[in-house]
Specification:
The complex is a heterodimer of chains A (about 300) and B (about 450). Chain A is α+β, with helices and mostly antiparallel strands. Chain A contains 10 helices and 13 strands. The longest helix of chain A is centred in the N-terminal third of the chain and has 24 residues. Helix content of chain B is about 75%, strand content about 0%. In chain B, helix 11 packs antiparallel against helix 15. The relative contact order of chain B is 0.18. Classes of the chains: A alpha+beta (about 300), B mainly alpha (about 450). Chains A and B meet through strand 4, helix 4, helix 5, strand 8 and helix 10 of A and helix 6 and helix 7 of B.
Chain lengths: ~300, ~450
């Protein structure tokens, strides 16, 4: 949250400058778009630096922040973070369905009630094999079926490996949802339940905030956090260190407390990917549920009532 | 035509001129308008509140809108079957059927396009398809082929209509004012000269050749919307042929139903004769057998292997929640009509009409079965979602919109038959002259 407020401060500063620049270049009231607000000079002035490098003086009453300005452009967001190849490792031997990942994710991305980008699935591969808990995120496939079918390039693959959605472009045809074999995608069937402040925020594909009615959303690997050099919300929220996140170019993944060489971890623990046979080439790797930290049953108490009913 | 020799040209013209709606026509149109209005109201609610008014959710993300879309695309294929294939194959008895099938094609493909917009979460962003369109996406292929097919069908309808419109212009005192301006606007340039006639004939031949691959592609591409995914039940190389054969069947069934209704309502017994039903019956049987063949391929082969992801889907179709609907679609949509029409007695107008209705209704549910049950069987378990996501039954808004769109198709056909002759007068006259000359 701290970081959010610093970026807010940056927005404010940018907003003030933008406002002044507009004020200097035309004679019209620079705050025309706030028509209805009758701004009267307060007599209190502040000195500010204009975009031309001049120091100017302005009445404080005329200063109003532009609510939000994007820090990076849409085309930048579509390109991705230079030189990175993000990957995730999920250690199934550590998961006991605590659900902290979900809570953190849902909160950070302002998901509406009932929506989950992360689903912790109760898996049992065959009748006599052991059940286990499998947290499922977007696989950020290198050969993403969803991206192939999108008619308008609203969902796209970035050079840093992340698959994102541009909710400002999505037409809501839901072909990507049908195409995704991992059923990872979530649709905003109605108007998203958002606080006013969030709803008015400038939309960014990297934060996926605010969610938009009639568009698809899904796990985004938190690229906004990566830009700040921080871990995705699920990784830092998990009390058991199930999730590891990192950069394959650096060959390292971390859950915050422990850091591993990615290639060693995958080799030593026989990591695998889901539905390898489909050829989707996921960027999420799983470590098998062996030598578990918790018995499977300990996770049952955290099941949602709906899932309990279906068994 | 066996009876046409006894008919005079004047009688043919006056028989086939468009007629004013009678009382029954008014009631019929009124009911259709009511359905459309109700559908429009439901769509208004959907625009206001979002797709949340439907019962589609994250797993069943495509519902009856999409199955309705597939149905419309399927039934619209018939325009090319009857007109183009019969013309190129020089089938002599096609004359009274071509216009009926062409108008079914145009109206169905129009509503296919509309219903797909209804299904969109953000219909106001429709233009994104052209601004940001990606040629890799099967949806873009569908946009291209469906708009091409729409234009071709409309043009084919228009160009075969030209000489008839000029007959309508000449019959002004009989028809009165209502549409005379429209007729003149459409065809006042048409004089029927040899040169014009030659161009027209060439145009029709060219369209008839071009429209066949386009018609095949509209439904093949529509099948690829499903077959290009990994889902059990959709992931099939059989899908293109399976869809095409189903489309031919439902289209031919639709034509049989329309033939019967027009024949009765407009007293066209002399033009749409029992012979036409007899011939169409044979065609429908052949098409139903063909579709049955592809169905056996589609279900039996995966059922033989029972791969794990397919298993849940197939058992639910054969013996589970969807079994009644599945067997209904197979029996009523294919097997019973085959048995009715195999026999000469079954190829009389009334049994044919009943069989045609069965084919069309069965086909509608078949499309529903192709779309929905698959979506309820994803690869990973359905968990961490609200319990309502595990099932799908359309909401009243979805029903209203789907029924409204079906009513819309019928409404276009009804209005068309009010304004234009539903059997080509010109062609009937030419056919008559030819038979007279040859005899």
């Amino acid at each position: 949250m701290e970081n959010k407020s610093t970026s807010r401060r940056q927005f404010l500063a940018a907003g003030i400058l933008a406002g002044i620049a507009a004020g200097c270049s035309s004679k019209k009231n620079p705050f025309d778009k706030y028509a209805g607000d009758d701004v009267k000079a307060s007599g209190e002035t502040v000195k500010l630096l204009s975009v031309d490098g001049e120091i100017i003086e302005m009445d404080k009453a005329f200063l109003k922040p532009v609510p939000d300005l994007p820090t990076i452009s849409n085309s930048e967001e579509r390109k991705g973070i230079n030189g990175k190849k993000f990957a995730m490792v999920i250690d199934l031997s550590r998961c006991k369905n605590v659900g902290a990942c979900k809570t953190a994710c849902n909160h950070a991305h302002q998901l509406s009630p009932g929506q989950n980008w992360i689903k912790v699935l109760e898996m049992q591969d065959a009748d006599h094999t052991a059940p286990y808990w499998q947290p499922t995120t977007c696989m950020h496939c290198d050969s993403p079926p969803c991206v192939k079918v999108c008619p308008v390039d609203a969902t796209f693959k970035r050079q840093d490996g992340i698959v994102l959605i541009d909710s400002d472009r999505c037409i809501g045809c839901r072909f990507c949802m049908a195409a995704c074999p991992y059923s990872t995608r979530v649709f905003n069937w109605g108007e998203p339940v958002l606080e006013k402040e969030v709803a008015e925020q400038h939309y960014s594909c990297e934060t996926s905030i605010p969610q938009k009615k009639g568009t698809v959303s899904k796990c985004d690997f938190c690229p906004d956090m990566a830009r700040k050099g921080e871990l995705p919300h699920c990784v830092s929220a998990c009390p058991n260190g199930v999730y590891f996140f990192g950069d394959m170019n650096e060959d390292s993944v971390t859950n915050g407390a422990e850091t591993f060489r990615f290639s060693d971890l995958i080799k030593d623990k026989a990591g695998y990917r889901l539905m390898e046979d489909l050829g989707t080439k996921p960027r999420v790797y799983y470590l098998p549920p062996v030598n578990r930290n918790f018995p499977f049953e300990s996770g049952l108490e955290n099941e949602s009532p709906e899932d309990k009913m279906t068994h | 035509m066996e009876n046409s020799t006894v008919l005079t040209s004047e009688q043919i013209t006056s028989d086939l001129l468009p007629q004013k709606f009678g009382k029954r026509g008014m009631i019929w149109t009124g009911i259709l308008l009511l359905f459309c209005a109700f559908g429009a109201f439901a769509y208004y609610r959907q625009l206001k509140y979002g797709l949340v008014v439907t019962n589609m959710r994250d797993y069943v993300s495509w519902g009856i809108y999409i199955s309705n879309f597939v149905f419309f695309v399927a039934i619209s294929l018939v325009g090319s079957l009857i007109t183009a294939i019969f013309r190129l194959a020089n089938v002599p008895w096609r004359t009274p059927l071509t216009r009926i099938s062409e108008i079914i094609a145009v109206s169905a493909i129009t509503f296919a396009a509309l219903i797909i917009i209804v299904d969109m979460g953000r219909p106001e962003r429709l233009l994104n398809l052209f601004i940001h369109g990606r040629l890799q996406s099967p949806i873009i292929w569908d946009v291209i082929v469906i708009s091409t097919y729409f234009c071709l069908s409309l043009f084919l309808l228009y160009i075969t209509l030209l000489p008839d419109i000029s007959i309508l212009i000449n019959a002004r005192e009989k028809l009165g004012k209502p549409f005379s301006k429209l007729y003149r606007w459409l065809a006042s340039y048409w004089k029927g000269t040899t040169a014009q006639e030659k161009i027209r004939n060439r145009c029709i031949t060219i369209i008839c050749i071009v429209i066949i691959p386009v018609a095949f592609s509209i439904h093949t591409v529509t099948s690829w919307l499903f077959a290009t995914t990994y889902r059990p039940g959709w992931d099939s190389t059989n899908f293109g042929a399976y869809f095409i054969s189903g489309a031919f069947l439902v289209g031919a069934g639709g034509v049989v139903v329309a033939m019967y209704i027009f024949r009765r309502y407009y007293n066209l017994e002399k033009y749409i004769t029992e012979k036409h039903f007899e011939k169409m019956g044979r065609v429908v049987v052949l098409l139903a057998l063909l579709y049955l063949y592809f169905n056996i391929n589609e279900y039996l082969v995966p059922a033989f292997k029972m791969k794990k992801p397919e298993e849940a889907h197939l058992t639910q179709l054969f013996a589970g929640e969807y079994a009644p609907l599945f067997w209904f679609a197979i029996l009523v949509g294919m097997i019973i009509p085959i048995f009715i029409m195999l026999f000469k007695k079954g190829r009389k107008p009334l049994p044919m009409f009943i069989a045609g209705v069965m084919v069309v209704v069965g086909a509608w549910f078949k499309r529903y079965l192709i779309v929905t049950p698959t979506l309820l069987h994803p690869f990973l378990p359905m968990e961490d979602v609200p319990a309502s996501y595990h099932h799908y039954f359309p909401s009243w808004e979805e029903w209203a919109i789907a029924m409204g769109s079906l009513a819309g198709v019928l409404l276009i056909i009804t209005f068309f038959a009010r304004v234009f002759p539903i059997i080509s007068i010109y062609k009937t006259l030419t056919d008559k002259n030819e038979t007279q000359q040859s005899s």
